[in-house]
Amino acid sequence: MKILVTGGAGFIGSHLVDKLVKHNHRVIVVDNLSTGQKKFVNKKAKFYKLSITNPKLKEVFQREKPEFVYHLAAQKSVTYSVNRPLDDATTNIWGSFRVKENCLKFGVKKLVYMSTGGAIYGDVKYLPWNEKAPVMPESPYGLSKLTVDNYLQNHYGPRKGLNFVSFRPANIYGPRQDPHGEAGVVAIFISNLLNNKSCYIFGNGKQTRDYVYVDDLIDACYKALKKGQGIYNIGTGKETSVNMLYHLISGLISEQKPVYKPARPGEVIRSAVKSSRIKKDLNWQPKTDLIRGIKKTIEYFK
Predict the structure, then answer these.
(1) Residue 256 belongs to domain spanning
(2) CA torsion, points 117, 123, 124, 125, in degrees to nearest 10?
(3) Does one domain contain both 160 and 108?
(4) Active site residues
(5) Is residue 287, in this structure, part of any structural domain at all?
(6) pLDDT tens digits, one per residue of 245-264
(7) Does residue 216 register a pLDDT over 80?
(8) Residue 97: CB partners within 8 Å, gap ≥ 6?
């Protein structure tokens, strides 16, 4: 099968491309390398250095005629979205429009979109959140992802006939995660501790996240080739505080104390997502526990 992956040079996208190539699919990667790295792109994949906001995206669809599209390209920083909401919306909303319209125009059989589980929901009364929990994005990043979900669920799916799956993953971590950004706290802690650098915790560290190992997410993505329709959460349903996460990682590397800084605007206090729907429809559940996933990630960064 011929498959196009936007954001295929990134942390998650490159793992997905490897999986698809391993299963003998013909893969096309579109990535502008703003955060992705060319060295992560599987040599058997065809690569286009291009932004999803560029009108030339249409030429890629026209030339390659993919049967299936994974849309992972995005502006992924919450802090950046708070400071520059227009830029965030241009990539995450307008860029996604280009992807969806080209899917329709060139007869793509199915689109899998990577939304977010951690930045869309908000009311802690419903933790762990299922897909019907109230949506209360606290950042432009969450708003942009929710906007694309809404267009898929309420317009492109029912009115345009676009077959789609949208994944709302919890916090994904693992090898190739960027240790220099703001979104990959596991990679940041590991890299800094291995290099004897200070580790910063924003706020009091009691804020919680639901951590999913990247291979488990890729397993869900691959299953979506043949199964699934609509929106699915991807998580463990378990909350881990940033303080506890740091304790687990530092206990395996160095007992260095973290430095606490003021909380950042736009971040949720507690987060965990329930995955019962995807377990039922795609027979998916996480296989990698947090300690084992952290150990694998440490080995990568050593």
Answers:
(1) 177-208+239-269+293-301
(2) -130
(3) yes
(4) 141
(5) no
(6) 999 999 999 989 999 999 98
(7) yes
(8) 151
pLDDT of residue 215: 98
The C-alpha angle 262, 263, 264, rounded to 5 degrees, equals 115
Q: β-strands 46-49, 208-209: how paired?
A: unpaired
**Spatial separation of the C-alpha atoms in residues 250 and 257, rounded to whole Å:** 8
In-domain check, residue 16? yes
Place of tokens 């639901």: 210
Q: What is the pLDDT of residues 126-152, one digit of tens each?
A: 899 999 999 999 899 999 999 999 999
112, containing H or E segment: strand 110-114
Mean predicted confidence (pLDDT) in 191-199: 96
Question: Using CA atoms, how far apart are residues 18 and 14, in angstroms rounded to an integer?
Answer: 6
Is 122 a residue whose pLDDT tops 80? no
Q: Please state the rounded mean pLDDT for residues 191-215.
A: 96
CB 235 within 8 A of CB 210: yes
- Tens digit of pLDDT for each residue in 155-170? 999 999 999 999 999 9
Q: Which residues neighbour 6 within 8 Å (Cβ) at sequence distance 6 or greater?
A: 13, 30, 31, 52, 69, 70, 71, 72, 73, 99
Whether residues 163 and 200 fall in one domain: no
228 sits in which H/E element: none
CA–CA separation, 237 vs 233, rounded Å? 10
| Closest residue by Cα to residue 130 from 224, 268, 266, 235 | 235
Residue 183 in this model has a pLDDT that exceeds 80: no
User: Reduced to 3 states, what is the DSSP secondary structure of residue 100?
Assistant: helix
Instruction: Give the separation between CA 34 and CA 45, rounded to whole angstroms.
Output: 19
Residues 243 and 166 in one domain: no
